[in-house]
Amino acid sequence: MAGRTGPAGAGRGRPASARRTYSTTARRTAAPTGATSGRGRFTAVRIALVVLLAIAGLKLVHVQTFEAEALSARAEKQRTTTIDIPAQRGTIKDRNGSDLAFSVETRTLTVNLRLMRKNWDEAAQKAPESGQNFQTRATEAAKFIAAKLPGKTTERELLDKFTKPNAFTYLVNDVEPSTADAIREKFPEIGMEKRALREYPGGTLAADIIGSANWRMDDPDPSKHNLGGLAGLESLRNNDLAGTPGRRLVSTEQGSDSVVIPGTERDLEPATAGSDLELTVDSDLQYDLQSKLTDYVAKSHAKGGSAVIMDSKTGEVYALANDKSIDPNDPASLRSDQSNRAVTTPFEPGSVNKIITAAAAIENGIATPESTMPVPGSLRVADHTVHDAWSHGTQPFTTTGIFAKSSNVGTLLLSRKIGEDAYADMMTKFGLGQRTGIGLPGESSGSVPKRSQWTGTTFGNLPIGQGLSMTVLQMAGMYQAIANEGLRVEPRIVRSQINPDGSRTEEPAPRTTQVVSPQTANTVKDMLRAVTQKGSSGNSGTAPAAALEGYQISGKTGTGQQVDPNTGAYSDSLYNITFAGILPADDPRFVVGIRLDAPDGTLPEGHSAAPLFHDIASYLAQRYQLPLSDEPAPVVPLVL
């Protein structure tokens, strides 16, 4: 064996340490290349995981630090919503503090049907032996609620609502709060919303002035179910009356922002009550005027009528009436058009408009009350002839007689002396063709032809009250100016606003216009006393029936032809019957304006509103204890 040569022998002949060194080196040299690349991938994956975890950690820190509040709010918003808390609506009062409209707090019962079905279906599955399920619970609730609210709903009506396929439904309106609380204590799944029932204790009393207000339930969003004005002052002054809603946080069913979960309400901000309105209206006088007007319209077979009573100095409206009125307590009586015809419906007034000629003639020195003028029975004006209401030859009328007997011809002769421009200027000063600014919705300005558009016949119509239109309020306003020494005061019907803190805010002072001098106004007022005088030998005025014993009365009758809707021409049978009067004439306190729409003349007085004025004036004198006139009005000559 010692003699062997070659690699094998040489290998065996090396020291052990040399062999170990060789063996390790050999193994390292012989290791496969795949093992190295595997270890590299493991290291890369481990590094990537560390990077991803670091990024996730940073994102978590960012979310928790910078986005936590926004995310929390977003999550809360998905579970809750904010709805309005209705404000207490202000009261409307008359001039003496009597309530004409006020609100009573009520509740509207609701039910979340989806949640109720879910809860009671789950209860039935957990305890089927109890026999309780959604249907039995609904039956119990319907029976209990109907017993608590007799006359408002029935068990059958409630069961029909409980079995609707809807997620939510309203059950009953106008429930007293204590009753609603008792129902909810018995059945926690019943929800309720705060409401206010608007009450009108006088029914139709002043309803055309007040209007109406009601809940708007046609919007699916409960926050928009507000008590809002629908007509009259309830509508026009809604911002003052309505107040400012509060805010309430409620939990809503998942996936819904409107179906509230009962019992989850939490107030965030209280509501601010609305302001009260104090009117210039006297409730007792308003009732009397409505009653007398309605009765007289029925007796005279008129199509309708309107009337107004104003303070002669302040322009405050004490009463404003139409013969037909709504009852805001009765939804069935509410019209789609709830207009107040006394301010919205103009008409051709007839001879009450002759006050303009009387004022202009005296103001411009064209005539005096006693001056005379030959007045024929007819007068040619452009292409047509104007007649007086009675046949007569040429007669010497006093200026007072022209207006006391309401001579069309005499009025036109005076108007010609006044001139078209001066007459047009006087109409403007009296407020014709302009809204009065009373503060009621839908007021009409009436109609006066522009001066530039006058034709030959225009000045034959205007002085006798044809060819122009006005409301009964505008008509009364002309006589208020004469009663107030020539100063026309803008009428108003709201006196003040009473704020929630009890403070008062007076309405802005009314605008005024000096129409004629005080001397002219007093002269015209005294001339018009002859309208109600009863004399002999043709010296009676047109309205002795308007006279009131113990008081001097100034006034003017009117008969305006209406346009026949079938022919488009003036009718010989349809008339506007008017009267404007001042009480007492020697110390004016009130002005009354009346319009009757096409009475048929069946009353003994025929086509006249004078008896109605007499009755209204009698009540005014009694209610306000007006002092008797110092002496009766003198009987003056009208025709010489």
Derived from helix and strand composition plus strand pairing, the structural class reads: alpha+beta
β content, as a range?
15-25%
- Main sheet record: 7 strands, mixed
Number of strands: 23
Going by CATH, the architecture of the largest domain would be: 3-Layer(aba) Sandwich
Distance N to C terminus:
186 Å
CATH level 4 superfamily of the largest domain = DD-peptidase/beta-lactamase superfamily
Specify the overall morphology: elongated
Mean pLDDT: 87
Helix segment tally: 20
* CATH class identity of the largest domain: Alpha Beta
Report Rg: 44 Å
| Uncertain segments | 1-31, 216-225
Residue share in helices?
A: 25-40%
CATH topology of the largest domain: Beta-lactamase
Query: What is the count of distinct domains?
Result: 2
Could you explain how this protein is built, in words?
The protein has 640 residues and is of the alpha+beta class. The protein folds into two domains: 83-279, Alpha-Beta Complex (Penicillin-binding protein 2a (Domain 2)), CATH 3.90.1310.10; 283-324 and 341-495 and 506-623, Beta-lactamase (3-Layer(aba) Sandwich), CATH 3.40.710. It has 20 helices and 23 strands. Strands 2, 3, 4, 5, 10, 18 and 19 form a seven-stranded mixed sheet that branches. It has a five-stranded antiparallel sheet with strand order 12-11-23-22-21, sandwiched between helices. Strand 11 (304-311) and strand 12 form a beta hairpin. The chain is elongated. It starts with 6 loop residues before the first helix and ends in a 17-residue tail after the last helix. Residues 1-31 and 216-225 have low confidence and may be disordered. This is Cell division protein FtsI. InterPro entries: Beta-lactam/transpept, Beta-lactam/transpept-like, PBP_dimer, PBP_dimer_sf, PCN-bd_Tpept.
